[in-house]
Amino acid sequence: MISVEVSDAVVAVRARTRSGEPAGCTGCGQLSAWCHSRYVRCLSDVTLAGRPLRIDLSVRRLYCENMACPKVTFAEQVPGLTVRYQRRTPPLQRLVEDVGVVLAGRGGSRMLRILNIRLSRCTVLSQLMRVPFPPLVTPRVLGVDDFALYGGTYGTLLVDATTRLPLTLWEGRDAERLGRWLREHPGVEVACRDGSLTYRQGITAGAPDAVQVSDRFHLWQGLSRRVQDIASAHRGCLPAALSPVSGTGPAPVEEPVENTAADTRAGRHARRLFEAVHALTRSGRSHSSVARELGLNRRTVSKYARAHTWQEVVRRPPRKPSTLDPYLGYLQQRWDEGQHSAKILHEELQTKGYLGHYQRVKMAVAPLRRGLPLDEPRERPPSPREAARWITTHPHRRSPHINEHLPRLLDHCAELRTAHDLVRRFAAMLDNRDATSLPEWLDDLANTGLAPLTGLAGSLREDQHAVAQGITTPYNSGVNEGRITDVKLQKRLMAGRSGVSLLRHRVVLIAHLRRRYADPPTVSPR
Predict the structure, then answer these.
(1) What is the pLDDT of residues 86-100, one digit of tens each?
(2) Mind listing the pLDDT tens digit for each residue in 247-265?
(3) Could you tell me the pTM of the whole model?
(4) Which of 40, 194, 243, 505 is the right S-S partner for 218, CB 3.0 to 4.6 Å?
(5) For residues 489 and 463, is the Cβ–Cβ distance under 8 A?
């Protein structure tokens, strides 16, 4: 028996289960038709035509005829409509859980309100945390990587590299917990990780028979950072990459660059701080105490203490290309003709297609008012990061600009030439997936006399087997990097207020949710 009432606020459906139909006991499962009484259950369902739907269902309370069952009476359940102790139908419960997984508490509550389902953010979160995890299958290939949780705290993420699904995550990156998880889930054959000593020890303790693979991306990233450190230490050589002014060849650049930087306000500031920091640190003072005395941040003190010369830390902001550069000739011409109003010059440039602001035109003609020439765009030397990117870029992928400037830089700086040759040799090993020359390469890396490369050689030699596996095998941590990007997205959606348990629930469940609702593959017509 079903009746429907429709109002402006809600659609109410009144229904009644059939009398005489046996129902299974919720304790022992034995069927019974011995009715004790009836009561009405009010169930919320998904909206109907945009209106909330309420089901007033009259159900029976029955006696259990099994004398050994601890239950005397039980309420009958309607499959697909009722669940014990729940006032939402299964379709609505699944909707609440899925919205909570995708949008978490506050965002999920707002989305449900749009669907005319009013639940608080705390209810959405509680329903989300009650969703069980999918059954965990021990992966054959495991990916292990860390991610920034908050502030200086990091977390560990485990991913099945075969199915590309996250398995779990926790706060910290300690070897003991990783080893315990691997012992509880035996069967991992390959473990992909970065060069972290912590993860190396954890995998060795928890899965000693697993093959450890040092990720190719992290190997290349570590080498690139060392090259950038070398470029920073030889910052004075970087202007040699610029085109010579005349055909007689480039003049010596190191001394003029230093003199030019020393005459600037930024250069004087950097030199003063460099001398003060080194004077205090040489006396045995800690970085924290030096920072308190000089009124600086501890990271700033550490940066100045690590530098060998003040030129490494001086800021020399170059003149960046401007949208006004194509119109500088016209500005000079109009200035020579007697037009000195920046407002009128800006209006004239707008008719010629200039889309920039008036303030930029005003600043461009300021040197002309003082009798100086226009600040013409000048080619600037590469930064240490740019120089490192030039060296690590594959020769076939370098732009004509890099192919023109990089040979000059390498001819001028023997240290960068050495780093470039070693980078290209390592790139050849990665491209060919051949690690036979790895021991020789490590020896050459250690014998360069360059501190960044010598330190890298020592760390890679301790992990040489995993490095060789990373070069020769197809396994890598690319899946982990993609999942870490997803973790960061979930953190931002929750405005950084989530705990580790909630973050773990969302990261694991949302991956399975996407897999469940993935678009079916399209078959192209023949």
Answers:
(1) 899 999 999 999 998
(2) 444 444 444 444 545 566 7
(3) 0.72
(4) 194
(5) no
